[in-house]
Amino acid sequence: MNNEMTLSFVAIEENEALARMTMTCFITPLDPTIEELSEFKTIVSEAVTNAIIHGYDCDGKREVTIHAKIEDSKVTMTVTDEGNGIFDVDQAMEPMFTTKPLLERSGMGFTIMESFADKLSVESAIGQGTVVRFEKTFSPVAEKSRMR
């Protein structure tokens, strides 16, 4: 099965749930396991939250864009903002590093995304924004083990 979609939305925290649920619906035909679904939703949540909070400082005036593509059982997704950019991507990807300690950010977003994605990359330029790209391959639930 192959499919592709793009979703853009205003960068406000309430839209993180919209992104997570929309992308969950998009991958439903892949018949993910509960664990895969949970991991996927977490990756989407972390990437979108980073764009809203770090990319745009929750300004609510600009957009976050998600582009997703399904090829067979693999999903490739990008989450893009045109915001602040990341000064040092390697440092930002270190566990516990955060630029927003007063907002009680844990600094674990990229670490969590890396642990749940098959591949993760981050491209960023100061004042131009950030693109988080990840891939995840799904193993369909066996027909006999499904709950109906």
From TrEMBL:
Record keywords: ATP-binding, Kinase, Nucleotide-binding, Serine/threonine-protein kinase, Sporulation, Transferase
Similarity remark: Belongs to the anti-sigma-factor family.
Role according to the record: Binds to sigma F and blocks its ability to form an RNA polymerase holoenzyme (E-sigma F). Phosphorylates SpoIIAA on a serine residue. This phosphorylation may enable SpoIIAA to act as an anti-anti-sigma factor that counteracts SpoIIAB and thus releases sigma F from inhibition.
PANTHER family documented for this protein: ANTI-SIGMA-F FACTOR RSBW, ANTI-SIGMA-F FACTOR RSBW-RELATED
One Pfam family it belongs to: HATPase_c_2
Upper classification of the organism: Bacteria, Bacillati, Bacillota, Bacilli, Bacillales
Name by which UniProt lists this protein: Anti-sigma F factor
GO molecular function: protein serine/threonine kinase activity
Domain Histidine kinase/HSP90-like ATPase span(s) in chain numbering: 35-140
The enzyme's E.C. designation: 2.7.11.1
Main EC class the enzyme belongs to: transferase
Record has Transmembrane as a keyword: no
Catalytic activity from the UniProt record: L-threonyl-[protein] + ATP = O-phospho-L-threonyl-[protein] + ADP + H(+); L-seryl-[protein] + ATP = O-phospho-L-seryl-[protein] + ADP + H(+)
Keyword Nucleotide-binding in record: yes
HAMAP family (UniProt xref): Anti_sigma_F
Gene3D superfamilies with a match to the protein in the record: Histidine kinase-like ATPase, C-terminal domain
